[in-house]
Amino acid sequence: MRLKSNTNKTSDCSIRFCFSGVCSSLVLLFFMLLSLSCIQPESADGNKSQSEITNEPEKVYSHLTTDNLVSDLVNHPAFNGFGELLLSRDNNSAYYNLRLRNVATLAPYHSHVNPADVIDALNHMIDEEGAGKSIFYDFYPEEKKESDPRKVNTGLFFFRGKPGAPFAIVCPGGGFSYVGSLHEGFPLAKRISELGLNAFVIRYRIGSGQWAAEDLAAAISFVFRNAEMLGVNREKYSLWGGSAGARMVGNIALDGVEAYGGDKLPKPATVVIAYTGQSTYSSEFSPSFITVAANDGIANINTVERRVENLRNAGVEVEYRRYENAGHGFGLGTGTDAEGWLDLAVNFWKKHINE
């Protein structure tokens, strides 16, 4: 919305005046009052919007549909400067002519990829940018990226919950060969934010579990240092991960943030670990929500259940949810017997927030 111009001509207020004697001063006063009545009124609360003050139009971005191409996503004006990082790989040009209805092609290790869930999360991000809310943050400063160009392809996508609520960082999987944010990051973070908590999705370096854990430690440190600016609570934060992303989460839950080059910070209040074959544990491990499907073809359910038992025997609180037919990398679990698992994981986290 633009501030309307007040260039009304005298003919718009077609009044004739006869100036004589005492009437001239009264007519002058009347003319001043009439001119003021032609000015664009303020809003009901007496304040002009920011767009009126700056004389800039509001940003209205078009939504994506499953008929759009991957290139439409990358080049969408709402994602200017970071569109490529929404996708799975560092170079996604081979997929630019792919329709978003076939988005599962970008995440071959994942099952039950639901294009509607993907589009819903992306359009939420578009609306947030249109409303002037930043959704992407670099957690490495420029000098770090210059010294290691691989760090250029990193960042945090922010899904806002209630101001001042605790935050989660969601770590999508992909075997450290891609980052499945479209399926296993953005839809999960959107749902977490709808339940009132703040959520970030991390884009980490591809190619090494060590690099990925270092990126997660750097991202946690960034959020802690910028909590006031971001409007999040440092207390009782949570880490979420699926498959390779769950290994990143498990590393922090086991060894802490500082062990991977981050600041000296507390371990997460809870971790959410989905379908990974990682088996590490200790008595100092963070309270854990763990889930997997029995028909997972990548993460062996016996390995997962052995870890659950070991953690419990070590005195760690674990809530375990086993599903039968959701496969590996089921994301929200839409259309499977795992549908609704995320709300259970949020309830587990909220229980620890309220302790």
Describe it.
It is a single chain. This protein is an alpha/beta fold and 355 residues long. The protein folds into two domains: 45 residues, no CATH class; 245 residues, Rossmann fold (3-Layer(aba) Sandwich), CATH 3.40.50. It has twelve helices and eight strands. An eight-stranded mixed sheet has the order 1-2-4-3-5-6-7-8, sandwiched between helices. Helix 4 crosses helix 7. The chain is globular and about 55 Å long.
Taking the sheet with the most strands, its summary is: 8 strands, mixed
CATH class of the largest domain: Alpha Beta
| The CATH superfamily title of the largest domain | Alpha/Beta hydrolase fold, catalytic domain
Q: What is the end-to-end distance?
A: 46 Å
Mean pLDDT: 88
Task: Give the strand line-up of the largest sheet.
Answer: 1-2-4-3-5-6-7-8
User: How do the helices and strands follow one another from N- to C-terminus?
Assistant: HHHHEHEEHHEHHEHEEHEH
**Overall number of structural domains:** 2
